Amino acid sequence: MSKGITNKIIRYALVVLQIIVGITAVLGGFGLVSDPSGTKMNVPLELLKNSPFTNYLIPGLVLLTVIGVGHVFAGIVTFLRHRYAGNISVFFGAVLAFYMITEVLFIGLVNFSQPLYFVLGAVELIFGLNLSRAGKSEHQIWIQSTGGKLKA
User: Fold this and answer.
1) What is the pLDDT of residue 110?
2) Domain spans in the chain, listed from the N-terminal domain onward
3) DSSP letter string, the chain
4) How much is the pTM?
5) Measured between alpha carbons, how far is residue 77 from residues 22, 55, 104 in Å?
6) What is the per-residue pLDDT across 21-67, written as a single tens digit (0 to 9) for each?
7) Between helices 85-107 and 113-145, what is the axis angle to 10°?
8) Pick from 43, 62, 80, 114: most CB atoms within 10 A?
C-alpha cells in the first residue's frame, strides 16, 4: 500500500476517532455538569474521596470543554487537512491519555471505558505523529518543487 493511501486511511480513522471521543465526552461532561452529584449518571460521590473534588462539576467541565469540544475541534481540523492537524491530534491524544491516567489514580479503575479511552488517546497520539511527519515531508516536497520561491 502506498504512503498516500496509508496516510489517507489514518486521517479518516483519526477523524472518526476524534469525533466519537468528542461527542461522548460532551455528553458525559454535560451530564456531570448538569448534575454534579453524579446521581443522574449513576456515578457515586464516594468515588471522589481520594480526589481534590467534592462533586463532579470541575471534572465534568474539563470533560465537556477540553476533552469534548477539543476533540470535536481536532476532528474538524483533521478532516479539513489543516497544516497543524497532526500536531493538534498529538496534543489532544496526550491530553486524553493524561486525563484517563489522572482519573484512574483518583477514583480507581471502575469500568472498561477508562482503559479504552486511554488506548484511544494513545492511538490518536500515534496517528497524529504519523500525520505530522507526513505533513512535514509534503511541505518539504512543495518547497523543493518550487525552488523555495513564492509566486505572487
Assistant:
1) 93
2) 3-145
3) --HHHHHHHHHHHHHHHHHHHHHHHHHHHHHHHH-TT-TTTT--GGGGGGSS-SSSHHHHHHIIIIIIIHHHHHHHHHHTT-TTHHHHHHHHHHHHHHHHHHHHHHH---STHHHHHHHHHHHHHHHHHHHHHHHHHHHHHHHHHTTTPPP-
4) 0.84
5) 13, 33, 29
6) 999 999 999 999 999 999 999 999 999 999 999 999 999 999 999 99
7) 160
8) 43
